Structure prediction request, 273 residues.
Amino acid sequence: MQAGDPSTTGSPLERSPLLVCVHGWLLSGRLWQPLTEALSPDWECWTPDLPGFGGQPRPRGLQPSLASYGRWLAEAAREQAAERPLVLVGHSLGGSLVVHAAPHLGSQLAGVVQVASGGGVFQPRPFRMVRRGGAAFLRWRPGWLAQLPGTEAIRSPLVAELRAARGLLASSMQRGAVRQLPGLVAQLQVPSLWVVGSRDTVMEPRYVRHLAGYSSDHQLEVLEGEGHLPMRTAPATLAALISAWLQEQGWPRRSAEAQSLASPRSWSSASCA
Prediction:
C-alpha cells in the first residue's frame, strides 16, 4: 500500500488533507487567494510566504537553495498540519521545492499537485538569458514603489530579499539541479496532478508533460487558453480540477468529514474500534 493512502492515515474515518500551496519566484502566498476562495469551504489551504519573500524573513541559517528550502517547507508543513495528511501544491519554481520537500514527509504526504511546473531539460542559452534578466531586474527594481498606496498587487517582486531571490534563481538553473528533477519526481510515492495552461509561455506544456512522465502515478491536465497563472485567471476551473482529483484519490472534503463525524453512527463505530 503506497504512502498517503487514505486507508492508512485516517481515524476516525479519513481526515481531510491540508493543502499547502507554494508560490514561485518573486511571488508570495497572496498569489493563491482566488484559488483558496474557490476551494473553500471543502478544502483547507495554507499559503505561506517563502522565507525572504512576501512578509516572511529568511532565517539566518537557511541557505537560498532548492534543497534547503525543500527541507524548510517539509518542516513548516508538518508543523502546520500536525497529524493531518498533506497535499503539496506547487507553482512554477515552487513545484521544484515541492519535490525536494516530498522525501522528508514520509507517509504524511498524501499527494502532489503541480501547476505550471515542469522542466528536467537543461538549456544553457535560455537559462543564461533568464539568469541575466533576473539579476538585472533585482539590481534595478524600484523598491520605493512598494511604499506607495495601491501597489499591493506588485509588491512581492519589489520587496523580495536580494540574496534569497538571486540564490534560488541560480540554484534552480544549475545543470545538476535541473537534471535532478526527474529523479525526484520518479521517487514520488503518492499520486500527482499536473496542470498547465495551453498558452503558458513561461513553462510550456511540453516541459510539464516531460517532467510529469517520470511519475508512475500521474494525471496531466491542460487548461485551454490559460497562461502561467491559472490560479488567478481561472480559479474556479482549477479548483474544480483539484477537488475532483482529490476525491478520486479517496480523500474526503471537510464538509463530508464533519458530517461523518457528527453522525451518531460514526461516533458509535469509532467508540467500538
In short: The beta strands are 18-22, 44-46, 86-91, 109-115, 192-197, 218-223.
